[in-house]
Each structure stands twice: as structure tokens, then as C-alpha cells.
Amino acid sequence: MLLLTTTDPGHIGFRLEPDDVVALSFLVGAFCIALVAWTNWWLDHLWQPAILAVDILVFIALPSLIEPAFSGFRIASLTTATFIILSVSIRWDWKSAAQVAIALNLLNLLLSTLQPVSTFLPVRLAIDESPQHEYVRNLFYFLLISLLVVWLGRRITALRSARFQPASGLSAEKLLELGLQFLADGIGARTGAFCWQRRDRSACTLVTTGALPRSIDGAEIECGLDEEDIAVAWLFDVEHRRALELTKQGKVVAARLREDPPAAMMRQGAHEGVDIPIAGASGQGRIVLSDLRAPSADMLTFLSTAVSEVVVALDRQQASLLSREKALARIRQTLARDLHDSVAQTLAGMRFWLRSLRGRPLSRAELDLELARIDEVLSEESRALRAVIDRLRDDAEPLRGADSLHVLLETLAAKWRIKVRPAPGFDTLDDAPALDFEVRQIIREAVSNAVRHGGADLVEVSLERRKRGIRLELRDNGQGFDSGTQRPRMIAQRVADLGGSMTIHSSSAGTHIEVELPSD
């Protein structure tokens, strides 16, 4: 506008012509309004519709009435129309921008029909512009509109591409600190507080940034939110009791400042700032940012996206924590099961063996032989226990080899003083160490149950490879158990964890266990 008033080829320099009066009046008014908007976000929000109407009137309507069709003002009108539409899109939404675009098109159509009438207006200036000046002016306007579009495009990208991507493995408090700093940096806040309460805890975790005017004690703050508070943010002014509220529908409206107890506690000493109640799957809380560099309603638009990023990170961190806790619980169950199937069963077998020696008259040579066999079995079980430990450490493979399962059957036979024999076609699983370990533990538990609970003295073990896994069968000649009796718990848990299935047939003639395990 200033360029038009000083470089118009009809009168180089400044003259008090009607178009100069329009241009300079608008420049002075726009400068004053900019100062007010910079210092008072409340008036900036309330004056937006009126300022939009003035912009349209000055830049679109008046130049069309007081300037010729070939005047540079027409290009300025096009530039300003683009600027207005993009500004409305940023400040409000695309629907409002579409309404403004329709209004501008209707206004342009109306002014085009009135153009012949404007010839008789006393303020109309018919200026004979030279092609050279018109060419230079057109270049300038196209450059100006390019800069405006690039600047606005960058701003739109910045608003919509805010990403909070913290490193994995952070503590909850550290994640809250990074989230608070992310939001503070995004809107230029020097001071902030973030109160977060997990849904499975009653205590509130509080983190702060900057120098708070007053200390805030997280233990005194209740982070409970009403349903109407969720997904709503405020730009508040405590002194004047007013605020701009971002509603659930994405609209920014003027409202009286709410003073519910959690908000009042969080706003201690912050006379002006942003208040954001937040809620996610893992918890809820409140964020207050104050000491803002340039407060405006645009901050609420940014925060509506940025806060979601922080909440998603908190939910993801909580989900990861729950996954780790579940994994640890599973490890504890596996450890307990492996110790039961190895150490506990070995001790039970040794006790059973020693009891069998108590009532037998043995010579010194026979006793030495029995003790040597017990020593051999304990040595074998010690190696099996080391295999369990190595498996838990994950730095060594479990016991394996072409004859490892055969050795196991011999050891179990000696320990329980029964016959444990492999069925014809017994597979040793020498190329599947993970299944080899699990199968050995199942066999240990099944043999122990057959002797201790069924009184069996013979167990036959069948192991064969199938297309999609393996099939393990154990038959004993014990007395069986009632159909209402609970199935072997340790074996059932292990089979379920491996994604397999188990079937038990029991009668007075013995028990038949069928286990199928997938190879993947």
C-alpha cells in the first residue's frame, strides 16, 4: 500500500489524492490494530470479524470502484484476497475459509456489474499508466504474494507437523519433563507446570519448567477432570477474569474464566497463560503454561495437536511398562516351573530313592553301589540344572545332542526306581534345542506324577516329528486318577505357553497323556 502511494506513475511522490488518503488511512489504522493485537489477545480475538470486513472493504471493494481496470490496485486486491483466505484458514478452519472465499467471489461479481457506474463517481481516478511501470509493479506483486504464500504455508506446516518423539525407555517423570518442555517451546512459554495422575494410582506426579512465581505441591492437587473439561484449553487472564476457550468442536470462543479447584491450584501465581486439561488411556492431568512471549488464540490451535502427541507418548510409555511387567511375570512363572520340573522333582526323587533303601538289608558293597548310583544321578541332575540356568541367561543353548533324551530317560528310571523306556521310532530332536528343553521338562513332570500319584513302575515315552510340530505321548501302568481330578498343572501351563494342546486319558489301567507342540 505504501509503495502504491509513492510510486504511482500518475503522480510520483506523495499527494493528497483520494486513493492516497485511503491507502495512508488504512496503513495507520492497520499499524495501530497490530499494536493492540500484539499486546491484547482478548481484543485481538473480539475484533477479528470487524478487521476482516475492513480488509475486504479497503483492499477489494474500494480499489474496484476508484481505480481503472488496468490499475495495479487490482493485483493488490488479488494478493490480499489470497492472504485473507489463508489467514482465515489458519485462524479458524477450512469451512470458514470457504465461506470467505464464496463471499469474495460474490463481491467481485457485484463490483463487476457496478463498474460502469463507477465511471461517474467523483473519486474515480483515470490514470494513464505506462506499460513499463505496470510491468515492474506486477513483478513486485507476484513476488509479494509468493512470499506470503510461502510464509503462511510454512506456518501451516509448523502447526500441523508438531511431533513429540521421545527416546524409548525413559522414566515417567523424565517423559513428563520432556513433554512439558515440548509444549512450552511450541508456544514460547518461559514457565510451566505439568500435573499427571495415572489411572492406577492416586498420587499426582508434578514437573515444572522455568521459575514458578509460587511453589506448587503436587500432593495437594487433584487431577480429576469433569467430562466437559476433556479436550478443552483456555488462554486465561486472571486479573480481568476472562479467557478464550477452545471447544471440543475446534472453535475458539470468548468466555469467563473458570476457577475449578484443580485449575485454581495449578494457576497459582500465573496471571496470564494457557490452561490445558488432558486425558488419555493411561491417566489424566493438567498443564499450565505462563510467561508467554506473544499470547494469541493461535496457541490454542497448536496445543490441540501438540497435546495429543504428548498424551500418545504417555499412553505408549504406560503400555510398554505394562508389557514389561507382563513379561517379567511370565519369566517368573517360567522360572518357577523350570525349577519345579528340575530341582524340586530331583529332590523328591532322591527322597523316594533313599526311603526305598531304608527297609532293605544291604551289604557294604551293595550300599556303596547304591550310593554311587545316587551320586551319578545327582551329577546328571546338576548338569540339567545348569542347562536351565544357561537358558535363563540366554547366552547358551540348553542341553542338546543326539542322545540327550535317551540319557534323560535312563536318569529318570534310576532316580524313581522304575522302568522308563522309549517307544519305537523315538525322535531325539537334535535339531530343535528349544523344543528339546521343553519336552524334557514335560517328561520329567509326567514321570514324577506317574510314580508319586499313580504308583506306576513303567512309563513308555513316544516322541515323533509331525509336519507342523511334534507329538509326545506318555503311557504308564499306574492306577490313574478320577476324571474330576485337576489335570497336571505344570504340564498344562507349559503346553499352553508353547501354543500346544494336551489330552489326558486315565483309567485304573494307567494314564495316557498326548501332547502336541507347534514347531514355530
Description:
The protein is α+β, with helices and mostly antiparallel strands and 520 residues long. The chain folds into three domains: 2-160, no CATH class; 172-324, Beta-Lactamase, CATH 3.30.450.40; 361-518, Histidine kinase-like ATPase, C-terminal domain (Heat Shock Protein 90). The protein is 54% helix and 16% strand. It contains 14 helices and twelve strands. It has helices at 2-7, 18-39, 41-46, 48-66, 72-91, 94-114, 131-160, 172-187, 261-266, 298-358, 364-393, 404-416, 433-452, 489-497, and strands spanning 189-198, 205-209, 233-237, 242-246, 252-256, 272-279, 283-292, 419-422, 458-466, 469-476, 501-507, 510-518. The chain has a seven-stranded antiparallel beta sheet. Strands 8-9-10-12-11 form a five-stranded mixed beta sheet, with helices on one face. Helix 13 links the parallel strand 8 and strand 9. Helix 5 (72-91) runs antiparallel to helix 6 and helix 11 packs across helix 12 (404-416). It is elongated. Residues 1-7, 116-130 and 217-221 have low confidence and may be disordered.
